[in-house]
Amino acid sequence: MVNFIVEDNDGNRQPVEAPDDMGFSLMEILKASDYPVLATCGGMALCATCHVEILEGKDGLGDATDAELDQLENLPEYFPTSRLACQIRISDVLEGAVIKLRGEDVV
């Protein structure tokens, strides 16, 4: 299991525990945890409605793919630590990470 923190737009932080041996994406775990993530394209890196910002723990994630960057760079708010949750696989590199929800449906 991997433990990380999710921060909403109000600054509230909640711990999340996710299995790291089933190939889930961060988007799938956020949706299963009842966070307001639209994930309109179903995880294909085509819509950016699963936009998150990695506040802590980005070092082990690697770089965003070209397809992911294409979506992120078109967002009104894009940060150097922005990622699409659908493109991040749950693994031990997320242990202790802090992830801020940034998708367009988050209020």
TrEMBL record:
GO terms for molecular function: 2 iron, 2 sulfur cluster binding; electron transfer activity; metal ion binding. The keyword Iron applies. Residues 1-105 form the 2Fe-2S ferredoxin-type domain. The keyword Cell membrane does not apply. GO terms for biological process: P450-containing electron transport chain. Its cofactor is [2Fe-2S] cluster. Keywords: 2Fe-2S, Iron, Iron-sulfur, Metal-binding. Gene3D superfamilies: 3.10.20.30. Belongs to the adrenodoxin/putidaredoxin family. This is Ferredoxin, 2Fe-2S. It comes from Algoriphagus ornithinivorans.
